[in-house]
Amino acid sequence: MDEASPSTVPERMDVFPNGEIGIVWRDGHESFYSGRALRIACPCAACVDEVTGRRILDDRSVPPGVVPRMVQGVGNYGVVFVWSDGHSTGIYPHRLLRRLCPCEGCRAASV
Known about the structure:
Number of strands: 6
CATH architecture: 2-Layer Sandwich
Radius of gyration: 14 Å
């Protein structure tokens, strides 16, 4: 297994009172996500077809104010969020969270 890159290792993760999630990565980059954006990006089998990879979650079913109620690490590779809408089955690998970074620099690099 490859050693994790500093760009995919969180140094710190915070959930702010407004429900936003902030991550400071080992490479010094900072990512800020809305709770709803991460909830919509859930990679679990209830949200993404396991065979085709097609998203099956209807974004309209996710409440606008959904926020994480709890965050729990999974090994050294990811986290699970317990969302205010009751959803809690998605494991978000650190690599996915970094790839989802909504900042202009990361969005431009992924194009």
